[in-house]
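Incident review: delayed structure delivery

Summary: a single-chain prediction request sat in the queue longer than the usual turnaround. Root cause was a stuck worker, restarted by the on-call engineer. No data loss occurred. The affected request and its eventual output are reproduced below so the record is complete for anyone auditing the incident later.

Affected input:
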Amino acid sequence: MKNKVSIIGAGMTGSTAAHWLAEREIADIVLVDIVEGMPQGKALDMQEAMPVIGKDVSIIGTNGYEETAGSDIIVITAGLPRKPGMSREDLLTTNTKIVKEATENTIKLSPNAIYIILTNPLDVMCYVAMKAGNLPRERIVGQAGILDSARMRAFVSMETGVSVENINCYVLGGHGDSMVPLTRHSNIAGVPLDKMLDKDRLEAIVERTRKGGGEIVALLKTGSAFYAPSAAIAQMVEAILKNKNLIVPASVYLQGEYGQKDIFFGVPAQLGRKGVEKVIEYELNDAEMAALNESASQVAENTAEIKL
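Output delivered after worker restart:
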């Protein structure tokens, strides 16, 4: 039987994630959105592209949840997008309601599904979904660290001219301005970044990484990034469905790792068929740990504000 992935929210990120996944031919796809006709139209357009690219994938668009029944993975991208000048925290109240309802409606039809959350503020929305669905921690994971790390890799490549395939960057912490790019653990073909880049250029890359999402919001004027976030979703879905045990930075529920408890937080996680198979703990120095603790305190503060 084919795998099934349902994406809640058929806007630019959700529909582009469906596109990336359809190209991989690893699951049938259901696109769900409240806007009448929109998910149906996008799904039909994608379905008609399958003969061109030679992929046998079913893509369905719907305004209800019935078609999501029996999903292996539920991806939630639905929510109010950030606008210029808006912080992720501004989205808290509205998106809590959206994610809660999406989780409650889907878990009844797919009781064994693994959840991937993209809605902002990301770490808090993971917590909302976990509580709303009464999910064990291995079955819920937030997409953030892959995106943030990919942005850093892109910026390093732009600065050095080296292929992105040779660049390894790791960004941990909350998905926001307090994220923690680990320059000491990042490298170009095994050579630490601080050996390849001078201090000022490296600090500029770190700062641009932290502001990466806001930079795109400011340029687009309406909406936010969708190509890179949706590609990251596809990578996570593939890692889970293929049981790849791929280690990626992701938002997971911590129970003592990195000295944090009871919050979702960006750390290296091993993704396989059970979802989050393992949390990997890096050895951090005092400065890195202090930055991580500061980021965690902001996430904990925002998490404490939600009302379920």
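Verification: The first helix runs from residue 12 to 24.
Action items: add queue-age alerting; document worker restart procedure.
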